[in-house]
Structures
1.
Amino acid sequence: MWPDRVGRRIKIRQLEVLFAVVECRTMGKAAERLALSQPVISKTIADLEQTLGVRLLDRGPQGAEPTHYGRALLKRSIAIFDELRQSVGEIKFLADPTAGELRIACADSMLSGLLPVTINRLCDRHPRLTFRVTQGLSGAQLYRELRERNVDLVLGKVAMPLSEPDLEPEVLFEERYVVVAGARSPWQRRRNIKLAELINERWILQPPDDNEGRAQVNEIFHACDLDVPHGAVLAASIQLYDTLVASGKFLAMVPTSVLRFGPKRPSMKVLPIKLPSIPRPLGIVTLKNRTISPIVQLFIKCAREISRPLSRN
């Protein structure tokens, strides 16, 4: 059969060379990256094209660009390299269950909440695990990292039902927001507050391009028949929120998971405001039809354990 014959002749090294040429845009730079000579790079590409019987690269003033045949081969090859990496990682983990690497993409709120708690617990149980964390603002950005297999899982808000058919979501709990003020804020002395009373205060809000967090905050104000206030500060950093709120001059709306799982913040006090219930599912997203490594399974199991109290609320 033609596919079997071609499959036996294609070598992993040839695909690696093709990847390098496309990423570097020139054969010279690809040769430097792979510590090979340029003639070897050229011959490797030529041999691969001869094996497949199609042209894989177009050479032009902007450098080497993949043809539609080349893009098709690269797309499938990403999965091949990822499965190999997963297999090698699984072998290492089976040989030493305390070691391995997990690559995670997550939103900023997860960096200050659920993620560090999960990492801490896993490191106690498996001291030689390492974690590579990629931060992103929107689900689309994080899912792109997952599809390109730059990360093993995404931790963040999950739109349910998830419209992307190639992604596999698991909801851990429903995220809710609360309004916080500093310990010295005059609003701390009040026992009952309506959100409308705070509309003209200095607010710290997520920037408009923070699609997930800002959308939920906007919905809360709109559900109270209020316009979203003009934010005095637009930022996604919970550390900045903490510092500014501590001054007593700013208010903020933050996820409950940050207060539950993050470090204790005596400078941040929850105001007694009954907000509309607009929960957003928070969970883990993986890629369908992709091998789930033992380390990913460990992370998911640990995140379930830690999230269980919130999942009952």
Note: The mean pLDDT is 85.
2.
Amino acid sequence: MRGHDHQQADIYSYLSPEQRVRESHPLRKIRAMADEALKNMSERFDSMYAKTGRPSIPPEKLLRAQLIQMLYSVRSERLLMEEIDYSMLFRWFVGMNLDEPVWDVTVFTKNRNRLLEGDVAREFLAEVVRQAESKGLTSDEHFTVVGTLIEAWASLKSFQRKGEKKAPPDDPGNPGNPRVDFHGEKRSNQTHESTSDPDALLARKGNGKEAKLSYNGNALTENRNGLIVNTETLQANGTAERDAALLMLEQIPGTDRVTVGADKGYDTKDFIAECRHLKITPHVAQNVKRNGGSAIDIRTTRHQGYAISQQKRKRIEECFGWMKTIALVRKVRHRGIEKVGWLFTFAAAAYNLVRMRNLLASPVGAA
């Protein structure tokens, strides 16, 4: 039998992630819109790193990774690094080759935290909104405002009397978990504060609901397609929703009269008067049980536009629903009002990108 020399050859096939992600994949449109926004932010990034030099992870890749974390509800940075390492789709979205080593989680977090300190999220949201405006997806006349409670990354056990430096003893049955007895103790934001997140305040969603350490996240949406055009995060102090609403309404460009829809929590004489001072027609739901009655009268409620605003304002709950369940901002993993506000604003931009992708795919999207 004649012997043959068999030469074994390894055949390598190298396809880039770009070639492997199908043209119709829903992430493609999101990545294109995100890239346009990031390209317009390049000057900001250059000025941010002018003195310290370019960081080990480019800010554009960091922000794309943050988007992936929100779009796919990835619970932690450690898990995010693992997902990017294994997933060709995620590598493509972030802008990494298949053989590029994924970042160490500590390095990623350190680099990302530098971005959390600036107005990067606010500028990213503004760039996304500009794209929506250029595509005819937004209204510049009719708006809705609403707030929601965001649970802080701090336990009630950290909510202790101000000025007390002494840490509570550990529970013998559960080391590392402080034993705190609140029985009979009256706690309020005036007398107590969280030792782990002093910016968080005790708040409840309604009468009879459990009080939690929280922040107040607020959004201003336009009424054509329910896109978020501005956000404001404040301490949950009882007047935060109306205060945030006025801050956002003041920033609406132009001098023409506009309308704003809101729920009955905004039906106070001060808020209505301030809206009118700003040349804004307050389409606020009437709170007839309020002392002195509603601050809104028939001069406002008789118009058809008032009924339309009341119908449109319910759409804003879809934004918060997505941000809390998908983008995981129901309970934030950051402490301090600046970082929580950054995360809330970036989640709003992520929501807009998903909504815009769906609207642009629909033949009646811009109608």
Note: The chain has 14 helices and ten strands.
3.
Amino acid sequence: MLDVSADARRSEKTPAGPPLDFQAHLAALEARGLLVRVDRPINKDTELHPLVRWQFQGGLAEAQRRAFLFTNVVDSVGRRYDIPVAVGALAASPQIYAVGMGRPVEEIEAAWVRAIANPIPPVSVTSPPCQAVVITGEELRGAGKGLAYLPVPISTPGFDAAPYLTATLCVTRDPDTGIQNMGTYRGALKATDRLGVRMAARIGGAGGYLHWKKHNKRREPMPCAIVIGCAPVAMFTGGMKLAIDLDEMAVAGGLAGAPIRMAKAVSVDLNVPADAEIVIEGLIDPDLLEPEGPFGESHGHVALEDFNLSMRVTAITHRPSPVFVSIISQVTPSESSVLKKVAMEPLSSRTCGSSCRSRASGGWSCTSRSPTCAR
């Protein structure tokens, strides 16, 4: 099912750097014995996430955890999906995270510091792999179409209100500066062409929410592109607390040691990773908030229903043979907790000795612009 050549698989055994697309990353994990393929039918609504979660909750040592690739995904009404689902492939363990970074675990902190201090701007390309298949218009609406075409798992069966996008890289742009932001926000399937997106998960709001507030004042819909699966170094930037005016794709380029390939989205004015697996494009309403949740969250409790942003899907694009990516975002230990432990914890413990000033927007800014500032 993977769209990776034999040459790519061989080269990933001794990588010269981080894998620059998600399927090359899966090949690298498989070559190291860190990937488990499950070929028998697995119900995405009741079995898929609980099976992977058990390795976190069932007492396995951290080094024994694996990424899982489900190649025969079905749902509760018997539908079979052509797209396989990967879970645990970003950070089931520090070793899996390190494969995505292309370096040993002990070098990850230093790599982040260098990349933040020395970002490499992305480059633009045409005819990107992520747009080999383009779904728009009426193909987004109707039974089994649009978002229903994707094998989106239910993260916490019996508690979640809907299948949720979890391993996201949500791309938005500041309408004043033109700088793009990438954040990891959950997205609830509400219709085949509509998502509920939660961007206000912390006090003051994340980068995407700050952009939405500006669109709210302008009374203009906010373009948004939700990337599902791309180079791990790019995916990892979504959860990092980087400066709001710093282009995360440039930081990802710093991690990769080379520019990240980007391409124009097909229906909104944004740039997206050219080698992404799947991209969901749309417009977030500048005024409308609608109920979203409940959802089993990373603090170990169910986040109750709240009013959040509403996104109308305008296009879905993907590679010829994509892989859908999901993460276990639950109470420690989980995939989301490993993401925080491996990269965010070391960085947050560093201090630069300079004073920080509070922003009116609710964020923080280091007066020295030091990449090691704990803020």
Note: The chain has nine helices and 23 strands.
